Amino acid sequence: MSIVVFTEKNKAAAQIAGILSEGGFNRASIDGIPVYDFKKNGKEWRIMGLSGHIMGYDFPPEYSNWRECDPAVLLDTDPVKNVLKKPYATAISRLAGQADELILACDFDREGENIGFEAKSIAEKSSRAPVKRARFSSLSASEIKKAFGNLVEPNENLAMSAEARQILDLKMGAAFTRFMTLSVREHARTKGIISIGPCQTPTCGFVYERERLIRDFKAKDFWKIEGIFSHSAKDFKGTHRAGNITEKAKADEIFKRIKDCKKGTVAKKREKESAVNPPYPLNTTEFLKRASKYLGISPETALEVAEQLYLAGFTSYPRTETNKYADDFDFKTILVGFSSGEFREQVMDILSRSQIKSRNGTKDGHDHPPIYPIRAAGRQEIEKSVRMPDAWKVYDLIVRHFIANLMPPAIFDKTRLEVHVRGEIFDATGSILKDAGWLAVYPFENKNDKLLPNLELNDEVDVKKLSNTRSKTSPPKRLTEAELLTLMDKNGIGTKATAPSHIETNKKRGYFETKGKTIAILDTGFTLMESLDSSVPILVKPDIRARIEALIQDVEDGKKSFDSTLEEGSHLIREMYSQLRSGKEQIVTKLAGTITDESIAADKKNFVGECPECGRMLRIVRTDKGRFVGCSGYPSCKNTYPLPKKGALNVLRSKQCEKEGVAVIKVGNKYHWSVGMGPCFTCDSEKKCFPPEVIGTCPKCDGSMFIITTKDTRFLACTERCGYTQSLPKEGRLTVKGKCKHCDWKQIRVKPKEKDANEFCINLRCSSRKSNSG
DNA sequence: GCAAGGTC
């Protein structure tokens, strides 16, 4: 009797082989793919790990040329399923041919069931052996043994629900993406792709919605009355109970009443101890959020680093929903590893307790434990094994989080004072960290002490200053990547493993970019979302994903057939497609504009700046008749500016004309020209805008030596025109650097073509020249 | 060349 088992990945195959064989298995390989075999109770077992999906959908080849088929045709075309990883298919066939029983043992979820069915469909071509399913929700010995002792039938509905998702996602993504891309190319020359998908588009939608709030925001004035109080030489601040006062008259009236007061009284005092609990164990989403927030690492990179740390055996499996530990989780073994290093004190404290208790969350994916360090390792060891820049930082975060989770809460002493000034109430709060608890190992959240002087009820305090200041309400802030991940998670956009890739897709397409930790939408993204929002609003919102999800849930539950669901889903997509098509012109002309403008902005040589008339892009236009600065909004915007007829043009990025000019251009090596103003040498501000580049003091008089560059030579001359000059190196690009260490001249840097740059002092009297005359 | 989902 021969039994063949397929698992979702190699690691699981090895693990399961270890458990079922109780350690005595043999590792073989079929065309490089590991297979674990062993004998037990007279039965021969062979366990092979797949590699996630090994098959995938695509349209038949005759539909693959974008220009040769109307994208709408894709909506009525059934994609076909192909093997994407041939070696796995070969191995499956070979194993199945000799099997008396096949067992699918992939992860117990929709995709896992589907991956199992991929193996089943390949196996059934060379085998008539019965196919069973082992269902387990963790890779623990007890679960695995139970699952293999109680085999069930494979769940076709569950597998088909994932199948429906794949087909609908592909149909929609391919048709919409081709349609948008081809339409935009009718108006703009670009190789770029305008993609739309049920996850990437709502992801961009979140960023768009926030941007709208920011752009539509209207600041309002408010007033705030604050006091600086003092007692026994210590100052503290209090805020009037009214908080942000929106009516000026009201603020003025209160302020007028108390502004001359010199004393106040403590009318109430409340002291409270408050505890801040440690964070829950890390699941993927939480890990990615914290890596972005604390370490500034993008979700995509963070997941990749965690994957490598996992493969190198430092941390546990990084793709998990679970944020609670199982009851029998062995903290002790891991903690012992950390008991001699930086965390010695805290770890010894945890180990000394009769029972180690984690602060658990409530999510359980029933597959993997939270992300935790498998073993303690030093910085050098990590960096040697995982050659990625942030490996240590990520590992360190996982370790600190793991230990913090097992530690006691942080205790703050909080004090609230109510200070009365002629009947007006001011609130002051103070907070002192009394016991750091878990914060001792978690430096990412800094909670600063805010001290109040030692005051008792009815004590008198001095009023040092009272102010009534006007402020403006501030617009909402841009989303951070951490917040975006939260929104995606809440709205079911993507999965723990794919969310970072949807963010990445949007960046790749030029829809948004990250600036530090926040996300800034780009013109193309904004315009695309804006026009989709008016023509196919469902696309911009999480609803689209929710609709597809609801459809396939019915397949899973057996409430609807696979075929009728596909038809229903295709109908939904067709409807959106026709909405998109009827809004085409309106969407595409605007979108083409932003794409043209972005490519103009990227053309550093000719890009001049933003058109003050219409906000689109100004660039240098050359025709056979001559050259000028023109607007990308032409013909609707006819804004143009003349340019000098001769000389190479260089737009100075760091210079802005102080008068009304839109940009400053260097003309040859001769002079400057302000776009919209004309040549700078006719301008009375020339000396101010282009002060002579002073190198040092003149050795002959009180003047300064500065660089004069003419068409054929360059040299130093004196600002006082005393007649002293000095030659400069003739070749190479010359820049002025910082001060010389030995004299009061500035050093120069010369970079001749195809030679190394040289930095030195050219003061003939400088002491550095004696030792280093080259 | 297009989506999203696995895994490496």
From TrEMBL:
GO terms for molecular function: DNA binding; DNA topoisomerase type I (single strand cut, ATP-independent) activity; zinc ion binding. Pfam families: Topoisom_bac, Toprim, Zn_ribbon_Top1. The keyword Membrane does not apply. CDD domains: TOP1Ac, TOPRIM_TopoIA_TopoIII. Residues 155-577 form the Topo IA-type catalytic domain. It comes from the Archaea. Gene3D superfamilies: 3.40.50.140, Bacterial Topoisomerase I, domain 1 (3.30.65.10), Topoisomerase I, domain 2 (1.10.460.10), Topoisomerase I, domain 3 (2.70.20.10), Topoisomerase I, domain 4 (1.10.290.10). Signal peptide: none annotated. GO terms for biological process: DNA recombination; DNA repair; DNA topological change. Keywords: DNA-binding, Isomerase, Metal-binding, Repeat, Topoisomerase, Zinc, Zinc-finger. InterPro entries: Topo_IA, Topo_IA_2, Topo_IA_AS, Topo_IA_cen, Topo_IA_cen_sub1, Topo_IA_cen_sub2, Topo_IA_cen_sub3, Topo_IA_core_domain. Residues 2-138 form the Toprim domain. One of its GO terms (cellular component) is chromosome. It catalyses: ATP-independent breakage of single-stranded DNA, followed by passage and rejoining. Its EC number is 5.6.2.1. Its cofactor is Mg(2+). Belongs to the type IA topoisomerase family. PANTHER family: DNA TOPOISOMERASE 3-ALPHA (PTHR11390:SF21), PROKARYOTIC DNA TOPOISOMERASE (PTHR11390). This is DNA topoisomerase. The lineage of its organism: Archaea, Methanobacteriati, Methanobacteriota, Stenosarchaea group, Methanomicrobia.
